[in-house]
């Protein structure tokens, strides 16, 4: 009863259009209509007898911060009058401590201001470089692609990263279309995938299809697996999850591919590759690049889980690992830490899951230029970047670290480490080392083959 004061004024009749929550079929009337700010101010002055003076414009803060912008705002004051005054020595000491604190704060602020200016200068410089590079790519390189793609000037410009506006076009040209896929062919396989989805929804599960006599090699039944993996593709972007603008598009590209290549089907990791292509290309062009990219020897070996080929790639990687990072190589050997523990995830997603998206796209730029060799060179660059940290870790911590790389990794640091990696062993390049491993394997198979029957 004491918590609520009695109403001294009669309630005004409710306005029919007044909004409010309907309670038991009735709309409670509003007690007070919205007042003007001047009326509220006048009522306040009449009630308190004080005039409200707004603060001067200079005293108002546009942005409220939870922390002071500067520690130099601290003021050195004497003790209150009701307390004993400071002694001369204490006052001098406090003054000296205060001056030192203010000077240190000023140094820190000047350093942070210089750092901010440096970041802004680098950002402006990067934007100018991208703009000038885009003009060169659009006006000079792309119209004369076949004649200029292998020139030293273009390769150097390529290394610096492709401008986002031409990235998709350059990727398409670099990957090529050896499979001769057309947009019409994509529509055919997409319609087939939609028919499969419809049959799945009608039959209930893909187990019914397998029971009906579907071949084990027929991996078109993996269409349902795509739905589970799409939600885990770049979850921080929220554009590929259900309800997002690219969810159905990603589903379509992956579904069409499983029907186009039932011998490969859908494998975890494909969604990341397709998603990166969708962000840079139109739907049909993304599918064409996706199918041709997965048809490359390295990707085909990994996505078809060809163990013998995968072991050759790991062996070739270790040759250059020992050549470039001998200390870390021996450290990994001491823990029996093999490349498959960390390389599989990197290769399956072409680093799009392991690295920040903008950095992964730059890795893709040079990968489209140099081919599979650059994927393994990038892996060695990552190991070189974190060599000092990895040398202090044991097996479990190394595996955990390489599975989830730090998020603050920058393109400048990584690409400087990649540039320092020499892809040459005993005057043999990557392709030659890999070819010799393949040759040794074939000769070994011949030596271990059973003798012919008489």
Task: Describe the structure in your own words.
Pfam families: RabGAP-TBC. By secondary structure, this protein is mostly helical. The protein folds into three domains: 90-160; 168-201 and 217-295, Orthogonal Bundle (Helicase, Ruva Protein, domain 3); 296-440, Ypt/Rab-GAP domain of gyp1p, domain 3 (Cyclin A, domain 1), CATH 1.10.472. Helix content is 60%, strand content 1%. It is built from 21 helices and two strands. The chain has helices at 37-48, 88-141, 145-148, 152-159, 164-175, 183-203, 206-211, 223-230, 247-260, 270-280, 283-293, 297-303, 307-324, 326-334, 340-348, 357-370, 372-385, 387-390, 395-403, 411-420, 430-447; strands spanning 424-425, 428-429. The chain has a two-stranded antiparallel ribbon. The radius of gyration is 34 Å and the shape is extended. The N and C termini lie far apart (112 Å).
Sum up the structure in keywords:
single chain; 454 residues; mainly alpha; Helicase, Ruva Protein, domain 3; Cyclin A, domain 1; 3 domains; two-stranded antiparallel ribbon; Rab_GAP_TBC_domain; TBC12 protein; small GTPase binding
Topology:
Layout lengths: L36 H12 L39 H54 L3 H4 L3 H8 L4 H12 L7 H21 L2 H6 L11 H8 L16 H14 L9 H11 L2 H11 L3 H7 L3 H18 L1 H9 L5 H9 L8 H14 L1 H14 L1 H4 L4 H9 L7 H10 L3 E2 L2 E2 H18 L7
Antiparallel strand pairs: 1-2
Helix pairs in contact: 5-16, 6-9, 8-9, 9-10, 9-11, 10-11, 13-14, 13-21, 16-17, 17-20
Main beta-sheet annotation: 2 strands, antiparallel
Mean pLDDT value = 81
The general outline is: extended
Gyration radius, rounded: 34 Å
Category by helix and strand content: mainly alpha
Percentage of helical residues?
A: 55-70%
Order of helices and strands: HHHHHHHHHHHHHHHHHHHHEEH
Which strand order spans the largest sheet, edge to edge or round the barrel? 1-2
Annotated CATH topology of the largest domain? Cyclin A, domain 1
Helix count equals 21
Number of strands: 2
Low-confidence stretches: 8-31, 58-68, 205-220
What is the CATH C-level name of the largest domain?
Mainly Alpha
C-alpha termini separation: 112 Å
The appropriate CATH architecture of the largest domain is Orthogonal Bundle
Pfam family, one: RabGAP-TBC
Keywords: Coiled coil
GO molecular function: GTPase activator activity; small GTPase binding
Protein name: TBC12 protein
